[in-house]
Amino acid sequence: MRAFLVSLLMAATAIAAGQQSNPYASTYQPPPGRPTVIRNATILTAAGPVIENGAVLLQNGKVAAVGQTVNAPADALVIDASGKWVTPGIIDDHSHLGVYAAPGIESLQDGNEMTNPNTAEVSAEHSIWPQDPQFDLARAGGVTTMEILPGSGNLFGGRGVTVKNVPSRTADGMKFPGAPYALKMACGENPMRVYGSKGQAPSTRMGNVAGYRKAWQSAAEYRDQWKRWRDEGSDPAKKPSRNLQLETLAGVLDGNIRIQNHCYRADEMATMIDISKEFGFKIASFHHAVEAYKIRDLLVANNICASMWADWWGFKLEAYDGIRQNIALVHEAGGCAIVHSDSADGIQRLNQEAAKAMRAGAEAGINLTPADAITWLTINPAKALGIDKQTGSLESGKNADVVVWSGNPFSVYTRAEQVFVDGALLHDRTDPSKQHKSDFMIGILPGVRR
Amino acid sequence: MRMCCAVIAAVAVAQTPAPRPPAQPPARRAASAPTVQPPRAGETVAITNARILPVSGAAIERGTVVMQGGRITAVGANVTVPAGARVIDATGKIVTPGWLDAGVQTGIMEIASSAEGTADESTTDARVSAAFDVVDSFNGNSTVIPVTRIEGITRTLVTPGSTGNVFAGQAAVVDLSGDQVPDAITKTPAAMVALMGESGAGVAGGSRASAMLRMREMLEDARDYAANRTAFDAARRREYVRSRLDLEALQPVLKAQEPLLVQANRASDLLAALRLAREFNARLVIMGGAEAWMVADQLAAAHVPVVINALTDIPVFDSLGATLENAARLSKAGVTLALASFDTYNSRTLRQQAGNAIAYGLGRDAALEAVTLTPARIWGVADRVGSLEPGKDADVVIWSGDPFELTTGPEHVFIKGREMPPDTRQTELLKRYRTIK
C-alpha cells in the first residue's frame, strides 16, 4: 500500500514537471524490492570475465556492487547461490508477446496491420495486451526486457516498443522509461507475397526497394518542411500539417527512432545498407538474418547487429541457407551477435538457443565461453535497443535486472530460479506466490494445477 | 503460433511445416554440394570402450557394440571384436540406438512456404482422404534428411499434412539413410492419421461434433463396404460418402492391425477419442496430447500410447492445461509415452525437448526410451529398431557426451549398419563461408 502511494506521488510529480506533454509516456514504476545480496555464485556479468564464487548487491533497484566480495547492509536479504550462476536479465530484441497474445485466436491477431505496405504510423504499444499469459512464461525463463515489434507483412510495419517484463494493467505501465522507439522494416518474401497476392505493389524485391525509397524521400521532404518552418520563425499560420506516418520516418532520419529490419538474405541486407546510406539513417539490427554469416564483414564495417536464431532454417527459400554456425561466425568476426526468439516458445529458453550456438561454433573451431555467450542474450540486444547504459550487464549503477540460475545456464537441465527486475523479485521457482498469473489464467480449469 | 511472424502466408499454413529434396542428382548441383559417399553396406564395425545405453536393458559402463551385414550382432561388456572389423574406440563416449521422431514431413516437403512443386504433404484433391499415402511422395534426396540424421535421428514417422478431411491419410516409418522407396521404408502403413479437437473441427465445418460425425460415418461405411464388396462392385449397394480407395485404406484400422493416430489435445477430446476407439475396436494412439496428463489414468487403463511435444506449454483454448510437466506426469501415471518434435526442419531439437522433459521431472531412462524403443513399439517396428540388441538393424549413434545436453553432439551415426557421411548442405555452406575472401 505504501509503495502504491509513493508511486502515485511520483506520478503526480511527473505531471507537475510538465511531462503530460507526452500522453503516451511510460508510467512504469519499479516494483517494490528490498536490498538483496546474492553470494557464492558463478557470475556472468556480460561486461568481462566470469567471476567465480562472487557476489552481487542489489539496492534501490540498481546493481550496487558486483565482485568477489561485496559489503551488504545488515537488513539485506541474503541468497546463498552456491553451485548456482547469476547473469543479467535476458533481453529479447524480437518478440511479439502481447501483440500475438495467447490463446492465439483470431481476435488476438494484433501484430500485422496488413492493409498498406507502409504503416509507419501504427505502434505496437497500441496492440499489446498486458494480460498475455506468455509474458509470465517468458519471465520464468529469465526474460526481463523485450522489444515488442509489429510483424513483417509490410515494408514499414510500424513502431516497436521496448517493455519491461512486469505485470501491469496497461501497456504504458510496461514501457521501458527512456527507451527509444523502433521502426520495423521488412525485406523479402513477406511483403511481396502479402501485397503481390492482392495485385498491388510491391510484388517483387525491386518493388520492395522502390517502396522503401519513395517513403524515405517523402520523409526527408517532410523533415525539411518542418525545419524550414522552424527556421522561419514557427509562424502558427504557416504550420505544416502533421503526418503520423512521415513523423515516424523523420524520427529515424533524426536519429531518435531505431531501425529493426527483418531481413534474411545477405544480398538484401547489403541493399538495405545502400538505402540507409542514400537517405542517411542507421540500421540498428538485421533480424532473423539467416545469412548474416555471408556478409559478417559488412555488418562489422557498418556497425550493425544481427539478431539470429540458433537453428531455424528451411521453412521458406530465404531461410534455406541457414546454418548452425551463424551466431558463432558473426561473433568471431567481431560483430554484434544477438540471439532472438520471434517465438513465444523460444523466448522461454533463449539460454538454450545460445548453448546450441556455442556447440555449433566449437564444431567449426570457434572457441566460445559462457562469458561470450551471455553477451548475445543481454548486452548486445541492449545495444541494439539503445538501452545499454541502463541495463544488459551487471555493473554498478545499472538496473538490477538479474537472474539466478540453478546451474550453468547453458545446460539443458538448468532453470531460472529467481528473476529480478529493477531489484524486485518477480519470479521465484520455489515460491508459487512469486509466480505471477495473468488475468486470463484466473479461474480457468478450476481446481487444476497446471 | 511459432511461425506467426517469420512466415506470413496468404493462406494458413499447416501447423507443422516441413521440407523436401533436391530434384537434381548431386553432380549437377553447385560445386559445393554435399559429397554423397557410396554406402558401405554390411561393413563390420566394432565400437569399443563405450558407455552403452541399449534401452532394452541396463547401461553397460564399458562395452562393445558390433555391427555386421547391416545388423547388430553383439552388445556387451565382454564381446570379442571380429577379425577385420573397423574398430572405433569410443572411450568417454556414449552409445545409444538411433532416435525416432514422429509427426513430421521429412522427405515429402522440401520448402514449406511459397515454393510450388516442393511440398507434397498436403492435397486439395477432395477425392483423397484416408487413402493418401506419404510413401508415394517420399524423396530420399531431400536436403532435410542429412541435416536431421547427423543429429542422431535415424528413423521417423512421416505423417500427412492435410487432405482437408478428418482422415488425413496414411503415415509410414522411413529411415533417413538417403535410400529411396522401397529400401527407405521400414513400415507402411504405420498409422492412419485422423484429426479431432480443434484441428478436426477445422476440416469439418467448424465443430468438434461434426468432425466426430464424419469420422464415425466413414468408419461405418468402411465396415459396411467390407461386408458387401461384391454388391458394391455391382452397384447394388447404397452410395458411400468417400471413395472405394478411402474405404479400403480404413480396413486395417477396423481390424486393429494399424493404429488410429488421432491428433487431439483437449482433455474432453481425448476422452471422445477413447469412446470412438472403443466403438470401432480401434487401436488408438494420441498425438499432440497437451492435456493428456489430465486424463492420464483413463489413457493408462485403456493402454493408449501418447505422443507429445513436451515443450508445449502455451495456453490456447484447445489446451488450456498445457504444462511442461506433461511428460513427467504421464510417465508417472504409467502411460506409454513417446516424444516428437512435430517440426520437420528442426526434428533435431528432439534431444533438447527430451532434456527439458528431464529438467521438468521425467526420468532419464524414461526420456531415452520415449525417443527410441517406445516409439518403435507404437509404430510396430520394434523388431527392427529402437534398442541395441543383436538381430536389430544397426541404427547406432556415438555421442560426444550426454545425448540430452546442448553442447554435446553425435560423432558417428549409423543407419542399417552404414556410417552416414557428416556432410549436409549446411556443412558445405559453412565450408564455403568459413573464411571470407
Helix content class of chain B: 10-25%
- Quickly give the structural class of chain A: alpha/beta
Distance between the termini of chain B: 40 Å
Q: Proportion of β residues of chain A?
A: 15-25%
The CATH architecture of the largest domain in chain B comes to Alpha-Beta Barrel
Give the mean pLDDT of chain A: 95
Q: What is the name of the CATH class of the largest domain in chain B?
A: Alpha Beta
CATH fold type of the largest domain in chain A: TIM Barrel
Rg of chain A computed from alpha carbons, rounded to a whole number of angstroms: 22 Å
Determine the number of helices of chain A (DSSP H or I, runs of at least 4 residues): 11
* Low confidence ranges of chain A: 1-19
Query: Could you tell me the mean pLDDT of chain B?
Result: 92
Secondary-structure element sequence of chain B? EEEEEEHEEEHHHHEHEHEHEHHHEEEH
Number of domains of chain B: 2
Describe what is shown at a glance.
The complex is a heterodimer of chains A (450) and B (437). With 450 residues, chain A is α/β, with parallel strands linked by helices.
